[in-house]
Amino acid sequence: MQPLNLSRSAIAARDGGVASVPTRIDPRQANSLGVAALKAGDFAAAVGHFSGALESDPGAISLWRNLAHAHRELGDGVGERAALDAALDIDRADFTTWLRLAQLHERLGEDREAMVAWAGALQMADAMIPPPDGLTDILDHGRAYCDGQRARLRSVIDSGIGDQLSAMDQRDSRRARAFVDHALGGRPIYANQCAGLYYPFLPADEFFDDFHFPWFADLAAATPDIRREFIALMADPGEALRPYVRQDAGTPANKWSPLDNRLDWGACFLWEYGAPNQPVLDRCPATALALAAAPTSYVPSRAPNAFFSILQPHTRIPPHTGVTNTRAIIHLPLIVPAGCGFRVGGEVRQWVEGQAFGFDDTIDHEAWNDSDKLRAVLIFDVWNPHLTEAEQNLICQYYASADEGG
């Protein structure tokens, strides 16, 4: 006798009982029921429908997000977090989940976790092309929240380390402040980008500390005479004044095009590629004397370079990097109206007339004059102070040999 092949439902019907056979839930239908329950305000029912759908399709990230939404409407932070965590277990790069997680942490007052989640969501949003549609206000809130948390955290940290910072010298203080700024996510760190010669293992520091340049005091003392010579020179510059940016004909449009062959950024050279501009030097004897007293790098056909840099009103020099990290670029501000600024890497400085500083121009930098008046700075190069005299001599010999062989 052949055994009967009955289904469980048939057996239950035969025996007069009620079938208790689990049936597979259609996840799409259950999701639709959950969405309808959300719209009707029946959030507990929505949780049930979405949970049922996930039993059949646990890998659907959208279902986990819907379940998190239902828990959120119920005020169930634990359930919402569990659903969002499950969604991230499926795809840790899901923007919407990070956004919802950031909002959850913020609502619960979990500031550290909220800041991390907001930072992740904002980073993803910034990388999207086109940007997320309809989320401008939400993302702006996230940025403001992160800024506020950083400011609060900075206040706490400054209170904790303020005495130590005050006791540090210029070098240690600058590095310590950069460390704190970077750790709080408010300051990028820039590396050297040399268009020419790169000398390995030199510190990639944005601004050189003043103690490297003990002769700055003499330069400051000479500033009034240098300024007077510059003003007299500008009264009748002749051919000495020319555009700093001069691109070859036929150069494709680029970031320098607005300044190309224009005196918006002008220059009067005293030295150029190692050659003296004697007529200008003769008209500016105090300036020539100050340059001669500096530890100038003399590299045939390359250095020194020294010029008066003139930036006209409402002119900006775009971000750029220089040729070699073997030099330090010195700025001596001569005429600086309000509204001017200078950035190297992650640090912005205001020029102060008569106060020189040195920086590494192979680190991304830019300048601007947003005022209605002319800005003037004496710019020249000296050796990178981290190079030894032996290294300086070797670099000069390298160029001499390369020129001879090339």
How would you characterize the overall build of this protein?
With 406 residues, the chain is an alpha+beta fold. Helix content is 47%, strand content 15%. The chain is built from 13 helices and twelve strands. The chain has helices spanning 8-14, 27-40, 43-56, 61-74, 77-90, 95-107, 111-127, 136-167, 170-183, 216-235, 278-283, 285-293, 389-405; strands spanning 207-208, 241-243, 265-272, 275-276, 306-311, 315-320, 327-335, 340-344, 347-349, 357-359, 365-369, 375-383. The strands form two sheets. Strands 1, 2, 3, 4, 5, 7, 10 and 12 form an eight-stranded antiparallel β-sheet that branches. A four-stranded antiparallel β-sheet has the order 6-11-8-9, with no helix packed on it. The longest helix has 32 residues, at 136-167.
Mean pLDDT: 90
**Helix residue percentage:** 40-55%
Write down how many β-strands occur, each being a DSSP E stretch of 2 or more residues. 12
Tell me the radius of gyration.
Answer: 33 Å
Task: Show unreliable segments.
Answer: 1-21
Number of separate helices: 13
Main sheet makeup:
8 strands, antiparallel
Features:
406 residues, alpha+beta, 8-stranded antiparallel sheet, 4-stranded antiparallel sheet, 13 helices, disordered N terminus
